[in-house]
Amino acid sequence: xxxxxxxxxxxxxxxxxxxxxxxxxxxxxxxxxxxAIIALFYLVPYYGFGNIHAHLPxxxxxxxxxxxxxxxxxxxxxxxxxxxxxxxxxxxxxxxxAVRNLLPVLVFVGRLVGLHxxxxxxxxxxxxxxxxxxxxxxxxxxxxxxxxMPHCLQDKDCTVKITHRAQNCKRCGKCSIKGLLxxxxxxxxxMSVATGGTVARRxxxxxxxxxxxxxxxxxxxxxxxxxxxxxxxxxxxxxxPFGPCLNTQVALDRVESVLEEITAMKREGA
Length: 270
Known about the structure:
CATH architecture of the largest domain: 3-Layer(aba) Sandwich
Number of helices: 10
Radius of gyration: 22 Å
Mean pLDDT: 80
């Protein structure tokens, strides 16, 4: 599908997307709440510490203060990475920790300020995507890429089995599988179709890609990113004009723009 191309310099420029600013706001609020909770856990039993040992209040203050400082600094570093859109020291480790543990906290904090779960998930995936591409730019571009697609992209009336071999598709054009197969051939990358999380994990274990470009709904995409960490996953939400899990669609130009950027990285590094 034709679309406007961007050069690599434009792709390197950080942008303040609504999703990014949503996540930055949630991270900042989370840091404040964590510091307040830790302070509360110290202050409540404060006067009892002195009865155990004269120096225990000071020792506990140092421990609690250090823990609060570590958490707040870690979240602050995540905010910096989010705003800059490229790697900083420990960003890979922080991304892994954040992907595995931070999303439930952000969903809870988001509810406190009136954000729906889906809004937080979109912000989470948008920033994850920027960090994944930043790591590709600042490290070595991925050589082995896997397009991992959900079975619900296939037309519901289609009788062709493509879950074990996407190339079985007859390319009638009734669904997005035809266009995705053409992209996989154009860029020389693998493509698989999964019926669920278990099958998707098996495909990842068998193919062992350097980067996954995955399409799914909010729930499956965020859980898939968490399950495969530290393996980088670039997530794209599917489109559901007929409701969930029925003849879903994907923006092919969005998929190709990611592949074009990676191809440009490879040319730059050659």
